[in-house]
């Protein structure tokens, strides 16, 4: 009886750990689909280009570099390139949505082989 109880107790620990790690990972990661929706809502009209053309402006590595440090280089480059997008890019909303938008452009970069539907 004691052995069964002990085995049952230790069997729960890995299961709880796996579920907890799965939830933590899903909350911590950015989402390219959400980033695509955010691009359409906040940036498409300001840039005047569709998401596929926007994300195809750089390679995966170039986008990763632009997205470092809270997207500081992305903000600088695209505020100059698309002045109508500057207010959004320099604002609080972009800070909040930057991980998702960056995940979108990285996922659909010109060398990714992926094509967005926007």
From TrEMBL:
The entry's keywords: Signal
Signal found in the keyword field: yes
Superkingdom of origin organism: Bacteria
Signal sequence bounds: 1-30
Protein's name in the database: Uncharacterized protein
Organism of origin: Campylobacter rectus (Wolinella recta)
Lineage: Bacteria, Pseudomonadati, Campylobacterota, Epsilonproteobacteria, Campylobacterales
